[in-house]
Amino acid sequence: MSRTLPRYVTEFADRHGKFRLRFRRKGQATHYFKARFESDEFWQEYAACLKGDLAPKVQPSMGTTRLGSIDDLCERFYRSPGWQGMTKESSRKTYRSIIERFRKAHGDKPVASLKVEHLDAILGKMSATPAAANNLRKVLKRLFAYAVKLGWRRDNPAELTDAFKIDGEGFHTWTEAEIAQFQARHPIGSKARLAMELMLWTGQRRSDIIQLGRQHIESGRIRIRQTKTGALVMVWISPQLQAVLDQVPPGQLCFLQTEFGKPFSGAGFGNWFRDRCNEAGLPQCSAHGLRKAMSRRLAENGATHMQGKAVTGHKTDREFSRYAAGADQVALADTAVANLADRLATKSAKPRKSQ
Questions:
Q1: 3-class secondary-structure state, position 224
Q2: What percent of the chain has pLDDT over 70?
Q3: Based on the structure, what is the number of domains in the chain?
Q4: Contacts of residue 254, Cβ cutoff 8 Å, sequence gap at least 6
């Protein structure tokens, strides 16, 4: 079929006769597109290929890389179907940064001679940052599973290591008092207030919030394709959220923009919002804590797990329960008992049928 394709993109027929598109550029791995041609998702994939996130650079030093080394394993892993099949650019970017840090320190070491005690020592030195150690362990399990697949090892040494037990509940869940304190410091019409209300009333991650604009509004709802999970979420626009959206200039593409009129990056937005929380005297609060605050609010107001997951996009009851764990026990108990009392009162008030 004849159509104009962007640079480095070619079309071919696979073994089933289906036409597919691929990105092929000298010095980079090949990427096979998953999105439909010319869709928004296609252009996002194409941009990620140009940046090297979806089509990582192939190291020109491959010929001098020591065979069987961790360097060698990493390069092969980046070209594997397992790596290419990772659908989320954000996950691939995170994994790659972790792998490259490990590779920089240990790339010349042979994979076959690596022992469990070696990995235990590496992870043990990260005791001050247990979450980072656990993330490294998670990535190494995948990396060395590929070594087993290649026949370089019979076992996966990362599987035999232990994860750090992390105490605490993660990001702090905003309380109603903290929400009110932030609102008092940042009135409607300010960018800070817009950001806070967007995250609070949609219950979404910052990576999704920074992309939202009027083009995502459909029938009084915000349509969100979650970056991390790919889940499609439609969230009703509450009057409180509508009040702040009404203050956004009509011609502004993204609701949230930098001072230069550009969309935020994920890290940039996190740092900017951190400063806004500090201005409100809330150093314990963060952007992600608002996602947990929405989960808490839903639970306290009697939402079922299915209803809560429909808003936040969580896949399992366990995930939603973890985020809603900050729900007020008294409020939950009051709601449960009140609902039970109302149901029993209604049942006893119904006239009995005559015998």
A1: strand
A2: 91
A3: 3
A4: 210, 211, 212, 213, 263
User: Do residue 196 and residue 316 come from a single domain?
Assistant: yes
> Mind listing the pLDDT tens digit for each residue in 239-250?
999 999 999 998
Quote the CA–CA distance of 318 and 338 in Å, as a whole number. Answer: 26
Closest CA to 178 of 275, 283, 273: 283
Residue pLDDT, tens place only, 165-190? 876 567 889 999 999 999 999 999 99
Pick the residue with more confidence: 228 or 328?
228
HSE on the CB side for 354, CA within 13 Å? 0
Measured between alpha carbons, how far is 221 from 237 in angstroms, rounded to an integer?
Answer: 5
Do residues 77 and 95 make contact, with C-beta atoms less than 8 angstroms apart? no
pLDDT at 83 over 70: yes
Looking at the structure, do residues 319 and 292 belong to the same domain, yes or no? yes
- Return the closest-CA partner of residue 263 out of 202, 206, 347, 183: 206
In which domain, by residue range, is 216 found? 176-338
240, amino acid identity: Q
Kindly state whether residues 217 and 310 are assigned to the same domain: yes
Q: Rounded to whole angstroms, how far apart are CA atoms 226 and 319?
A: 16
Check whether residue 282 and residue 134 sit in a common domain.
no
Residue at which a domain ends, from 167, 194, 229:
167
293 closest CA partner among 197, 189, 226, 167: 197
- CA distances, 85 to each of 98, 214, 283, 313 (Å): 18, 32, 39, 22
Indicate whether 354 belongs to any domain: no
Q: Return the axis-axis angle of helices 89-106 and 40-51, rounded to nearest 10°.
A: 10
